[in-house]
Specification:
Elements: H1 9-19, H2 24-49
Helix pairs in contact: 1-2
Amino acid sequence: MATNLDLDPNLLERALAVSGERTKKAAVTRALEEFIARREQARIEDLFEQLDWDAEYDYKANRSRS
């Protein structure tokens, strides 16, 4: 999908340099993928805060081979 964007040329050049990508399109695509991944990871971390942990649960007790 063709899209016209007015991007900061300095940011784009820095993205090219740090990403190792050869094209502007590839650098922007990688940046978007990493942005999305970080946001999704943050949502997962938020879910862990909502769990109720049983402080008395002994996970080692369930490892017996009997």
